[in-house]
Amino acid sequence: MNLRTDLAVERHELVGSGDIDGVELNKYDDGGVTVTQIRVLNENGSRSLGKPKGTYITVDVTPFSKASDLFSHQLTVLAKNIKKLLPEGSGTVLVAGLGNKSITSDALGPMAAELIFSTRHIGAELRKSIGMENIRSVAGIVPGVLGKTGIETGEIIESVVKKIQPCAVIAIDALASRRLERLGTTVQMASSGVVPGSGVGNARSRIDEQTLGVPVISIGVPTVVDAATLASDLIEQAGYASDAAAFQKLLKPIGEQIMVTPKEIDLMIERASQLVAMGINCALQPELDPKDILAIVS
Amino acid sequence: MNLRTDLAVERHELVGSGDIDGVELNKYDDGGVTVTQIRVLNENGSRSLGKPKGTYITVDVTPFSKASDLFSHQLTVLAKNIKKLLPEGSGTVLVAGLGNKSITSDALGPMAAELIFSTRHIGAELRKSIGMENIRSVAGIVPGVLGKTGIETGEIIESVVKKIQPCAVIAIDALASRRLERLGTTVQMASSGVVPGSGVGNARSRIDEQTLGVPVISIGVPTVVDAATLASDLIEQAGYASDAAAFQKLLKPIGEQIMVTPKEIDLMIERASQLVAMGINCALQPELDPKDILAIVS
Amino acid sequence: MNLRTDLAVERHELVGSGDIDGVELNKYDDGGVTVTQIRVLNENGSRSLGKPKGTYITVDVTPFSKASDLFSHQLTVLAKNIKKLLPEGSGTVLVAGLGNKSITSDALGPMAAELIFSTRHIGAELRKSIGMENIRSVAGIVPGVLGKTGIETGEIIESVVKKIQPCAVIAIDALASRRLERLGTTVQMASSGVVPGSGVGNARSRIDEQTLGVPVISIGVPTVVDAATLASDLIEQAGYASDAAAFQKLLKPIGEQIMVTPKEIDLMIERASQLVAMGINCALQPELDPKDILAIVS
Amino acid sequence: MNLRTDLAVERHELVGSGDIDGVELNKYDDGGVTVTQIRVLNENGSRSLGKPKGTYITVDVTPFSKASDLFSHQLTVLAKNIKKLLPEGSGTVLVAGLGNKSITSDALGPMAAELIFSTRHIGAELRKSIGMENIRSVAGIVPGVLGKTGIETGEIIESVVKKIQPCAVIAIDALASRRLERLGTTVQMASSGVVPGSGVGNARSRIDEQTLGVPVISIGVPTVVDAATLASDLIEQAGYASDAAAFQKLLKPIGEQIMVTPKEIDLMIERASQLVAMGINCALQPELDPKDILAIVS
User: Fold this and answer.
1) Mean of the per-residue pLDDT values for chain B?
2) Contact A261/B259, CB-based, under 8 Å?
3) Strand-pair category, D168-176 with D93-97
């Protein structure tokens, strides 16, 4: 069974409903917002789920969240869970917006990075004069994609990490899901780093604590689903779970290379970028009012 | 059988491989470019195909046609077939770019309209001084969508037709296909007018010769496919044609409202808009060099 | 003295500080917001000011108003003054966004029109179900520019007015100012209609009550200044008023055709469009919360 | 005399018409294209011109060069002069597009970088299979601006240079001119590096061979002019050179912080970006057909 998905929660569903050795799942309600935390504890769990060791937190958000929904409880839940994954301390955090801004479904990273409140360059005096003595140092980059730059995303991030010595990297990237209804409605945060381009079918080498020397938190929202997965998933939803598996196998060679996205992708990406960016901003600057941050970055 | 498609050629496939009363199909090669002309001759044919009487011409184009492919033979074929559908004479032609420019998959009409060479306002003297005495009078509008304007697309076009009295209207709109591989690779031209929004699931009242009083040629490129159609189509391609029909029925309630589009939709729409606009420009200004027209409009 | 400006308040300054026959000026503070109302009462006043008879209201707004400033008292002042210029009654209002969306300094109209809450198509039942029984009927169009469409802006508006029979037209357009510091900081509303393209140097025939048969309220923000006017204006500000007049004459042939705009024009237009659109929305839907309207249109 | 300009050729004009010690000027016609080469030879010349030692080449290009003008002789002249400034050898060249892509007048660098043909990642086998064995290794980055990223442009470029070890850096940036007519009509190439943001008034520390360890060629096009400079320049053009100097002093405090740009800035930047990018592409890949390169990158 090799359905195309970047979501730990979907991998878990695929393995089955029972307990999995080396994997811990904890699903709970936080003030009306559903949170699922999966911990991959060892090699065994990693093999079963096809995901590296680490913590994967999924927060369900309102679909195509209206501008008016931005400052609701789900933002607090996002910020709280991002904070959980960040290391202790108050060093600089480098936020990297991965993906290709010219392809709407892959533009989550670059668009969210535009809305990150970067503060590393604001000197002590200026901080004082604007009443922000305690803001945390944050830097943000948009490394671009290999096909455009000729440089691996990981190479650029590694270079900048060496230069500015952050205590952690947050990498934002679009993901692939196996279910249409998860597109734009799920935020996954993970402690295990990121493989740039995996969501859109051009996987590059992993960017994680091992390669960078500092913790790498990945944050993503599923924006695409592959056509074969979509078909077998619809078949399963129609009540033919057994056929779904059979058809999935049949359809693989046809539909695998074709990633599809909802026709309202433009609005979905705009809203998702805003939500992810504000979740990070609130996690990093807990003393500031979210609305003030939004006014600064937009 | 109720697969979601705006293409006459797909409707024809669905009805079967034999002859259909009241329908004439003629598929041929034009210098390496495949052209399919379907004529719906009477009510009987109209019922069988679920399309109004008229001529439907489909031209297969290279997928995601490269900028370098723009001036190849397929452009000549497009222009030639658009000319076939236009009435005799040399009156003003009004080109209307239908659809919502904020949704990439629906932006074909507005984007192509931007590249139409409008000439109606160029006076005789100016025409002479720029060496274009014989250019045809062309006007172009982008009426917007009902949800944004509060006015039916048909109302706006009808108003402008009354004012400027064109001899024909060309309406450009994004279409729905039942096959992923047709997205961005097929141009359909038809003499039977257009129903705004039908491709994206919000059909409004028909814009045609009956409602406007002048011939209405529609030109479109499929950009979306509904999820249920996609699934059953993949199943059929996998060699399970009979199951496809069954699953199509099963999936309808789930997938019908969900239109999907390829993840490379941005590039696809950009290239398709350019091809459609240049096809129209060349059909209307046969004496000008296509490259000169492109330099004027871009 | 022929300085290039679309602002009645600047024309008035140029004529001098004394009383002008046929012109009434009333400048006052409305809760911290400066409002200047000029009434051109007769032919004499019209000749002196070089503006048609009518009421011209100028509201000074915060420069590059922050997103956070959008819902301040200046929005209330804008809405109140737009209402003053609208005819009594509750008929449909047609809002037209004039100008060329591809030239940032001329894109005020099209960008503001995108944010107008159009309601004409919302039926009685739907209004009831969304709790908006009493919303006013509003329609919005973006007619484009003659060079792109081949159709005069006035022709398109006239056509649509005939079809949908509004009780008034509101035309939004970018303006020219003689002072750099007015760019983006002044909103002018007038009862005398609009000449499309006058702000950017391609004046077309007037769109007003005489040509359309219904009142035409124009709303604009200055976004450009001509280079000669800018130079003489700076000279005057430097304390050399007499030289300014002399230099203005000298510079005219050089600088007249060159309109300049601040380098931050992108942000200025974005903010000004939002302010103007929300001013109109609030004037037309006084029962709705401005923040709810913004959430609907954005 | 402290007029705001980034062009060596304008600095030279300001110093006067005679010979300047330590400065060599050579103006010539290359097939109808005017080229001016200024060499700043020593400290004395550097002080006189207010520019670091190095070679500054200015090529005059057609204003708002039409798409149809892109492949004319001026492209050959640009490529030839860029080659002159590049070091011998065939190592990787890193092209950096400086500036803020959200401010049109500052977007030259990011927009041109989008059109650079990056090849560093194309392996030997792929090169062979596409018939491009001999292409030079090129990488391209868009470092963003300090206010958005929290990281100095120079820090990012330095980091990437350390990682990928190019033999030279080409930095593209928008410039300031003292003359309106130079906006969009001049390309300056220099061997002395670049100060990010100098054109738009936020100068940062220099990026040059001394700071990076490899030659830094800067390429720019003037896109803005400061208001005071514009005014005194118009006065001078009107034949009042002596007053110009006086007024320049008077106007400085008023107009210095205000940079203006032509209202057609959108089109100007689009065309200038394309010209600069293609000039670089042709200089780096002399064996490829320019039209083939454009088809690859666009």
Assistant:
1) 90
2) no
3) parallel
H or E segment and range at residue A260: strand A259-262
pLDDT for the residue B253: 62
What average pLDDT does this structure show over A150-159?
96
Q: How many CB pairs under 8 A join A and B?
A: 100
Length of chain D measured in residues: 298
Query: Which residue spans within chain B are E strands per DSSP?
Result: 23-30, 33-40, 54-60, 93-97, 138-141, 168-176, 186-190, 216-226, 259-262
Residues of A with CB below 8 A from B255's CB? 234
pLDDT band at C23 (very low <50, low <70, confident <90, very high): very high
Is B293 within 8 Å of B117 (Cβ atoms)? yes
Residues of B in contact with D295 (CB under 8 A): 66-68
Contact residues, chain B, for D292 at CB < 8 Å: 68
Identity at C204, one-letter amino acid code: R
The overall longest dimension of chain C from CA atoms, in Å, is: 66
Q: Which residue of D has its CA nearest to B68?
A: D295
Structure tokens at B242: 């009979």
pLDDT of C67: 57
Contact of C294 with chain A, judged by CB distance below 8 Å, is answered with yes
Q: Chain C residues with CB inside 8 Å of D230's CB?
A: 227, 230-231, 260
pLDDT value for D1: 40
Highest mean pLDDT among A26-30, B254-258, D1-5, D122-126: A26-30
Q: Looking at residues B204-229, what average pLDDT do you find?
A: 92
> Taking a contact as any Cβ pair under 8 Å apart, which residues of chain B between 20 and 59 contact chain A?
none
Contact (CB, 8 A) for C108 and C276: yes
Residue C137 with chain B: CB contacts under 8 Å: 150
The span from the first CA to the last CA of chain D, in angstroms, equals: 44
Work out the minimum CA distance from C114 to partner chain A, whole angstroms: 15
Tell me the C-alpha to C-alpha distance, in Å, between residue D239 and each of D230, D231, D247: 15, 13, 14
What's the pLDDT at B1? 40
Q: What is the ipTM of this complex?
A: 0.91
Contact C147 B121 (CB under 8 A): yes
Q: Mutation target for D interface from A114, A146, A163, A298: give the one with most D CBs within 10 A.
A: A163
Token pair recorded at residue C188: 């002018």
What's the confidence (pLDDT) of residue A203? 64
Burial label for A187, CB within 10 Å (0-12, 13-18, 19+), is buried
A294 touches chain B (CB under 8 A): no
Q: Is C257 on the interface with D (CB under 8 A)?
A: no
Euclidean distance between CA atoms A105 and B262, whole angstroms: 9
Query: Which H/E stretch holds residue D125?
Result: helix D124-129
Contact D119/A150, CB-based, under 8 Å?
yes
φ, ψ dihedrals at B206, nearest 5°: -65, 140
Report the length, in residues, of chain B: 298
Q: Which residue in C65, C66, C68 has the most chain A C-beta atoms within 10 A of its own C-beta, making it the best mutation to test that interface?
A: C68
Please report which helix (H) or strand (E) contains residue D235, including its range: helix D227-237
Please write the tens of the pLDDT for every residue from D186-200: 999 999 999 886 655
Per-residue pLDDT band for C1 (boundaries 50, 70, 90) equals: very low
Q: Are the beta carbons of D180 and D229 closer than 8 angstroms?
A: no
b/e map C142-169, b = 16+ CB within 10 Å: bbbbbebbbbbbbbbbbbbbebbebbbb
Q: How many beta-carbon pairs under 8 angstroms link A with D? A: 87
CA angle A156, A157, A159 (to 5 degrees): 65
Nearest to A245 by CA among A14, A5, A9, A6: A14
Gap between the Cα atoms of D275 and D78, Å rounded:
9
